[in-house]
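Quick review question:
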């Protein structure tokens, strides 16, 4: 139970960081930034960040959030590290979602007297929201199974009680699965527990993917009715 709760805390914390940063960055890249070498360079760097191994993010999170910023091994440090892992995917998803919207909608809104910000908020974002939400949830599905980032920033194998705040350590299913699969000498006796933990983790990711599809259909229907 503690592992499920800890995994949930980490996913929510990473979403609270990655969603606003990623969406606002994607909006700036597509709607405000002048097209040129700078935008191409930023886009290339974003794509490169998506391919960096998660263990590198874990080491970076430990150096920045755990050591330098003094958060220690905590849910906050783990959430921010996982959020950094999500941000490149959210940026690219947001940018591609906004690119798919025809310019005629922007031009029509501006012709009716709306400002650029009003056009983005009331026209562009609602139309792109299905793909943006889907990208965010799929990014969370990816980080929910990451072990290396939380290994360096927040995870504990066993805690007698649930965390009380963002600066507490927590248990997490990926790290718990790693430990029970690699430690000890009597591996045969630990296999049922390892398989059970893996099954719970797979079910969580399945629920996340089903939620992504449901949210996508909801926002798509909402856009069509409007």
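Suggested answer, residue by residue:
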């Amino acid at each position: 139970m503690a592992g499920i709760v800890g995994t949930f805390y980490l996913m929510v914390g990473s979403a609270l960081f990655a969603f606003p940063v990623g969406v606002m960055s994607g909006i700036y890249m597509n709607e405000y930034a002048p097209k040129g070498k700078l935008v191409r360079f930023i886009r290339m760097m974003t794509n490169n960040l998506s391919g960096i191994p998660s263990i590198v993010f874990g080491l970076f999170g430990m150096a920045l959030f755990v050591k330098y910023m003094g958060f220690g091994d905590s849910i906050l440090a783990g959430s921010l590290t996982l959020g950094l892992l999500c941000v490149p995917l959210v940026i690219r998803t947001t940018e591609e979602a906004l690119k798919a919207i025809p310019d005629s909608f922007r031009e029509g809104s501006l012709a009716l007297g709306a400002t650029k910000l009003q056009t983005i908020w009331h026209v562009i974002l609602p139309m792109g929201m299905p793909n943006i939400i889907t990208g965010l949830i799929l990014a969370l599905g990816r980080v929910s199974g990451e072990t290396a980032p939380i290994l360096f920033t927040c995870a504990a194998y066993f805690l007698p009680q649930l965390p009380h705040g963002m600066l507490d350590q927590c248990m997490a299913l990926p790290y718990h699965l790693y430990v029970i699969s690699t430690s000890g000498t009597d591996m045969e006796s630990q296999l049922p527990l390892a398989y059970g933990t893996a099954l719970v983790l797979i079910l969580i990711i399945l629920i996340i993917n089903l939620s992504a599809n449901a949210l996508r259909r909801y926002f798509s229907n909402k856009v069509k009715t409007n």
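Why it works: Residues 2-225 form a domain with the MetI-like fold fold (CATH 1.10.3720.10). The mean pLDDT is 83.
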